[in-house]
Amino acid sequence: MIRLIITWLINATAVYATAHILPGISIRNFGAALIVALALGLINTLIKPVLVFFSIPFIVLTLGLFMLVINALMLQMSAFFVQGFSVSSFWWAMLGSLCISFVAWILEAVLNV
Description:
The chain has 113 residues and is mostly helical. The chain has 6 helices and 2 strands; from the N terminus they run αβααααβα. It has one domain (2-111). It has helices spanning 2-21, 30-46, 48-54, 56-61, 66-81, 90-111, and strands spanning 25-27, 85-87. Strands 1-2 form a two-stranded antiparallel sheet.
């Protein structure tokens, strides 16, 4: 349970940091980042597997690069559902999803989670 909360806080921190790094992504405050991290977790758990299943031919054809598109769509979907968080375009969503993944990876490595 503690590990789940730590992972949630790491993802919220990654979203918050990404919003301050990239000009195409904006967030109101850290509370909104917590909600975005929760929304991303739920979207990635419930909707992403269905998208991946139906996108298997594209994923295979592009050698997995189509997963970047799916991750960007998940970030845009969370921006649609969470007020106080916005992504200005698909390309900012793609760059944002890469940045969130990278920041979360660094934080997990530093915190040894």
